[in-house]
Amino acid sequence: MNFKKLKKFLPIILFIALVALSLTFILTYINIWFWNWFLIWWFKSFIITFCVISPLWISSTFILSKLVNFIFPKTKEITKKIILAILMWFVIEFFVSFINVCSTFWFVYNFLNIWLRLYINSIPVWICLWFFMSFVFKPWMWKRIKSIKEID
């Protein structure tokens, strides 16, 4: 990869890292507040989320976008973006909250209750995030990726 391509692609990676960092911070805070081991659990949750969930998020965004366009071909673009935001919210929130609970509590007897509480309490954060991602970040990211393909 040449320097021009890297220069175009780096902001995408940095933004995804920033989103993962802030989301795992919020979820860890909702989960355990500022407890003694907060920073360690937050960092562990961030690393797992960034390395595992970020590629899953990018690929699922692409797949779900194609699926929404296939299922609703004549629907307005704004409706498709809303549907995509809701689908992404369900899919990614499930995994990120699961990873967050795993990194803080492992598998304790009330794991399901802890995960469900985190999932429900973080709904407002996720709704705002995925609408931002669907309406702002995804179009910016795809435009940037297309411009990377054009560089040669």
Summary keywords:
single chain; 152 residues; mainly alpha; 87% helix
Give helix % range.
over 70%
Derived structural class:
mainly alpha
Number of strands: 0
Average of pLDDT: 81
Q: Measured on Cα atoms, how large is the radius of gyration?
A: 17 Å
Tally of separate domains: 1
Task: Give a short overview.
The protein is 87% helix and 0% strand. It has 152 residues and is mostly helical. The protein has one domain.
In words, what does this structure look like?
There is one protein chain. The protein has 152 residues and is mainly α. It has one domain (3-32, 40-150). Helices cover 87% and strands 0% of the residues. The chain contains five helices and no strands. The protein has helices spanning 3-32, 38-71, 77-105, 111-121, 123-150. Helix 1 packs antiparallel against helix 5 (123-150). The longest helix is centred in the middle third of the chain and has 34 residues, at 38-71. The N and C termini lie close together (10 Å). The mean pLDDT is 81.
